[in-house]
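ok so i was messing around last nite and threw this chain in just to see what happens. nothing serious, just curious
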Amino acid sequence: MFIFMLAMVLLLPISMLIIGITLLKHPILQINSEKGYRTNRAMQSQENWAFAQKMYARLMIIINSVLIFCPTFLIFIFYKTYYKWSLICIAIQYVCIVILPLCIIEKLLKNKKF
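result:
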């Protein structure tokens, strides 16, 4: 059971890290409504779009690199109660992967800090 929970904790950050690396090497160049970092502010201009795609890829790499090690470390420290920590780690990962990049990129786009 421990191996399964560890795999579940690592599945999301590893897959998002791969997506971040892919987006960094092959950015989505044209504004579209199907793929890429799509918010109203990012889709306002080609300049905003290019910046948002590049920043999202970089943030995915940074955030998920950290999320691979921190939860794994916590689970190994609290081995006896790993199932509780696994669920907490998964919840924190979802928040970090979805909300953190959104807040950072939208703030930068709003202030035109690029």
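not much to say yet. The chain is about 75% helix and 0% strand.
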